[in-house]
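note to self: dont lose this again. the chain is below, predicted strucutre after it. 50 aa total, dont forget to put it in the shared folder this time
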Amino acid sequence: MKKIYTILAAALLSIVLLAQPQKMSYQAVIRNASNALVVSTQIGMKISIL
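---
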């Protein structure tokens, strides 16, 4: 019975560790109020995960 719990715990742990991505990739186009592209300007970005 102890072996079953150990195997189950190891399988669950490996699934959880492998399922998480290593990074997040994101691309966006920033435009100002007159709909022109914002180029070579630092911008801030707030990301929240609900």
